[in-house]
Write a structure and sequence with these properties.
This protein is of the alpha/beta class. It has an eight-stranded parallel β-sheet with strand order 2-1-3-8-7-4-5-6, with helices on both faces. Keywords: Acetoin catabolism.
């Protein structure tokens, strides 16, 4: 390593084949094959062979741990549904079209949650500077009900564990195509947590929430930040929106740890959103979040997965980039996808896998400092958010 090269951060990757048990059905969009393909691709790229990586098996979160952010009655309801999957509980969001029941749903969901909890423990103990749980990011789960393919909110559990472990302020950044409503609501009135969600507008996408004027509860005004970009937004607008809001407000909040959710369902080939992102744009955003953690939190960063339903083409490439970036050695977007992995995809799905780790996309974006264009719907979105939140932190919505 040259003298100018940064040391590789100690990085934990939370993984076990047991995480594949979170499986609603063979036809459900959130299929665990996306996790297996990601880890296979990561291994083929040689990422996990680097000495700064440690693979940590996720424990099953205990009821007491789950109840730090979930209602005890809800945890009990999930347990009952796990044992009797033929008895739906729609009030708890269990047994619905989005969250169908399956035997063992409690243990499978609690293991995903335990993954992000052990990531938080790694950060608190100093065993890791960065931690990645690609199976996590269950951001729609609320205190008392499941929603949007999510049963237990692992990101919220990690945030709460960090707070309980002495971290003064935690910043949560959610770049899934869908609004991070569950995590936001759990910490709606908690001034020690800022939730920032960059998502497709609720005017066109589930869950129909997360607008600029949703800014937090009475004791935490300004700690919920929502950037709701219009349907059809591509890399340039999405990255412009991120950089026009997130670094400024994150710096003002001054967090001790960043927890991020990297749902990759904003990709143009994903069937469950209307955004037009590329893997290249998503990779750049991961680099941006990593840089924020370095600048604001001495590197302390927990990254999770989330949405992403193009199982073979998009998710494995996006999250393999995330794991590599967390370890301090990003994979260039023009890196060839290893042939053994492509052969595996062809055998499994009868389809041709991508040849490169990126989409060869142009991800140039126009800096906010260049000027505000009121005719641009993305700029109007940005300005709406900045007007709501920036003055609360002494920032000027026009110029900062």
């Amino acid at each position: 390593m040259s003298k100018s090269a940064a040391p590789s951060p100690p990085t934990q990757v939370i993984w076990s084949g047991d995480l594949m048990a979170y499986r609603f059905s063979d036809s459900h969009p959130m299929h665990p094959a996306r996790l297996d393909l990601t880890m296979r691709l990561t291994a083929e790229l040689g990422t996990l062979a680097r000495p700064n990586y440690t693979v940590v098996e996720p424990p099953v979160a205990t009821d007491a741990e789950l109840e730090t952010v979930h209602d005890p009655e809800y945890v009990a309801a999930v347990r009952r549904a796990s044992e009797s999957p033929g008895e739906p509980n729609e009030a708890a969001g269990l047994g619905t079209e989005d969250n169908p029941l399956f035997p063992g749903i409690h243990e499978a969901s609690a293991r995903l949650a335990g993954g992000s909890l052990v990531a938080a423990e790694g950060i608190l103990s100093g065993a890791a500077l960065h931690a990645v749980n690609i199976a996590g990011g269950m951001h729609h789960a609320a205190r008392g009900h499941a929603s949007g393919f999510c049963v237990y909110n692992d990101a919220a559990l990690a945030i709460q564990r960090l707070l309980d472990g002495g971290v003064a302020r935690v910043l949560y950044i959610d770049v899934d195509a869908h609004h991070g409503d569950g995590t936001e609501r759990i910490f709606w009135n908690e001034p020690r947590v800022m939730t920032i969600s960059l998502h497709e507008s609720g005017m066109s996408l589930f869950p129909g929430t997360g607008f600029a004027n949703d800014i937090g509860g009475p004791d935490a005004v300004g700690t919920a930040v929502n950037v709701a970009v219009p349907a059809g937004t591509g890399d340039a607008g999405w990255l412009r929106a991120f950089h026009a809001v997130v670094p400024q407000i994150a710096t003002a909040f001054d967090p001790g740890v960043i927890v991020s959710q990297h749902g990759c369902d904003g990709h143009a080939l994903d069937m469950l959103s209307n955004l037009r992102l590329s893997v290249d744009g998503q990779r750049q955003n991961m680099l941006d979040v990593s840089d924020l953690a370095d600048r604001l939190c001495e590197g302390r960063w927990i990254a999770t997965g989330g949405g992403g339903y193009n199982v073979a083409n998009v998710v494995p490439r996006a999250w393999s980039h995330l794991i590599a970036i967390a370890g301090g050695r990003p994979v260039p977007a023009r890196t060839p996808v290893p042939q053994p992995w492509r052969d595996h995809v062809a055998e499994l799905y009868g389809t041709e896998a991508p040849a490169m780790m990126g989409d060869d996309a142009d991800i140039w974006w126009r800096s906010w400092e260049v000027g505000y264009d009121p005719a641009d719907p993305v700029d109007r979105t940005i300005m709406a958010t900045r007007k709501e939140v920036f003055p609360l932190y002494g920032l000027d919505p026009w110029f900062d």
